[in-house]
Design a protein that fits this description.
This protein has 448 residues and is α/β, with parallel strands linked by helices. Helix 2 runs parallel beside helix 3. It folds into two domains: 203 residues, P-loop containing nucleotide triphosphate hydrolases (Rossmann fold, 3-Layer(aba) Sandwich); 162 residues, Rossmann fold (3-Layer(aba) Sandwich). It is built from 14 helices and 14 strands. It binds adenosine-5'-diphosphate and magnesium ion. Adenosine-5'-diphosphate (ADP) binds next to helix 3.
């Protein structure tokens, strides 16, 4: 379903129970966003949904609010709704939203994620929370223990569904979905869910799903100014980061920043360098102990730290106030990851800046991302740290550098030559075994 922009609608027009309207009022939430306007009504009607709407557009509330109303309509003292998300931090954040919206009801929630004490989680599950927010693996462990009865689940939400599947949770998600109640309503949310990539899942877990497309992946986030800075190598990128994050550049003031890198080792290297320059940061990747991750994220949220260095574990879903700068230390692997990373800033009505550091090897990847998202990142220069690299000398109409392709052309030519050579040899082989033309016999007469 493609939608026109409707005029803003108020939460108070929804048929919600008083405790939910009261919570919305306490949270000063008055007007629905576009995705909320469309998706809440469909969810309340009990439909299976696939919802695509851009980062920071209020998708969490779009699935939490109807889910709470449905539980109020049909109260039972067992878990009735499961929300699955790809990362532990995102689960905790979603749970926070649930508790805030449910604050005037008796609905209980539980967070069931890896890296935390399962014994404590068992105690929480024994309280029969109506809502469970979980990562798929840990939830299944509790299902096996008999702590969660999936048959009682009436609502299943998959947030950042594409990421969850790309992380290899496909089988776990399908297993969970299939054990839920036959009548279970399943809803998928993302800013970048490409249905054709996940046909297997949608076939298996959705029933006559309604598609809600508010804006496609390619309609980038217009609240974020996107620029690239050319860089020579790792050391040069470190210098650029240190310069920017020292926050002394009058053209580049920020309140809170995340630096994303593709690998854990790079994250560690950056945070080591920053520490040596007296820039404290929250370092977050999957090898860091969960308690520490929680503590660092809390400090980052509370303004005790204003720089975070992270892998893509922090690129999905996190909603952090006053986060106004994203630095991509590496060019991300693809356009979707790029979009989610920069989507940590410029959320709702805020604005932000995203800087991507690009070296010669990454030029073409960056152009692919820009072309895929139909954006053009302008080039920014830091006066004291201008790269020797100035971009490719010869560019194709796509903006990509010539060179590598030429090499492959040459390689292909060489290959062809080799193939030809082999063919000649093969033809020669045909003569193997054939009689040769008889040569004149010479009878040698031994010297005697
Ligand atoms: P998404 O999942 O689409 O990336 P979130 O659900 O994390 O976005 O919401 C982004 C921010 O917008 C959150 O801080 C949330 O509290 C806020 N928000 C959500 N809905 C509204 C609304 N209707 N009015 C104002 N702010 C909202
Ligand atoms: Mg979200």
């Amino acid at each position: 379903m493609e939608t026109d922009t409707p005029s803003p609608q108020l939460f108070s027009t929804l048929l919600l129970d008083e405790p939910l309207l009261e919570a919305l009022e306490t949270l000063e939430l008055v007007e629905m966003t576009e995705v909320q306007q469309v998706a809440i009504a469909q969810a309340l009607a009990g439909k299976d949904l696939i919802v695509n709407a851009k980062t920071g557009s209020g998708k969490t509330l779009a699935f939490v609010l109807p889910l709470l109303q449905q539980i109020l309509d049909n109260p039972q003292s067992v878990a009735q709704a499961i929300i699955l998300a790809p990362t532990r931090e995102l689960c905790r954040q979603i749970n926070k939203q649930c508790t805030l919206l449910a604050q005037y009801t008796k609905i209980k929630t539980a967070v069931i994620i890896g890296g935390e004490d399962p014994k404590y989680q068992i105690k929480v599950l024994e309280q029969y929370p109506e809502i469970i927010v979980a990562t798929p693996g840990r939830l299944l462990e509790h299902v096996k223990r008999g702590m969660v009865d999936l048959d009682a689940i009436n609502i299943l939400v998959l947030d950042e569904a594409d990421r969850m599947l790309a992380m290899g949770f496909n089988d776990d998600v399908i297993k969970i979905a299939r054990q839920c109640n036959e009548e279970c309503q399943t809803v998928l949310y993302s800013a970048s869910f490409n249905e054709s990539k996940f046909q297997d899942l949608t076939d298996k877990v959705l029933y006559e799903a309604e598609r809600i497309l508010i804006d496609s992946t390619r309609e980038g986030n217009e609240n974020v100014t996107q620029q690239k800075i050319l860089a020579d190598d790792h050391d040069h990128k470190i210098k650029l980061c240190v310069h920017i994050l020292q926050n002394e550049d009058e053209n580049l003031n920020f309140h809170k920043a995340i630096v994303f890198a593709n690998k854990k080792e790079t994250v560690n290297s950056i945070s080591g360098w920053l520490q040596s320059k007296n820039i404290p940061s929250a370092t977050v990747h999957s090898d860091i102990d969960q308690d520490k991750r929680n503590m660092l994220l809390r400090k980052f949220r509370n303004d005790d730290l204003n720089v975070m260095i992270a892998t893509d574990v922090a690129s999905r879903g996190l909603d952090i106030k006053d986060l106004d700068l994203i630095i991509n230390f590496d060019v991300p692997q693809n356009g979707e990851d790029y979009m989610h990373r920069i989507g940590r800033t410029g959320r709702m009505h805020e604005t932000g800046l995203a800087l991507t550091l690009v070296n010669a090897q990454e030029w073409n990847k960056m152009i692919s991302i820009e072309n895929f998202l139909q954006i053009e990142c302008t080039e920014r220069k830091i006066k004291s740290l201008v790269a020797k690299y100035t971009g490719p000398e010869n560019r194709k109409s796509s903006g990509k550098a010539y060179g590598k392709k030429k090499d492959t052309k040459q390689k292909n030519k060489n290959k062809k030559k080799e193939i030809n050579k082999i063919k000649v040899r093969a033809r020669d082989k045909k003569n193997v075994g054939k009689r040769r033309a008889p040569t004149e016999k010479k009878i040698s007469i031994p010297d005697s």
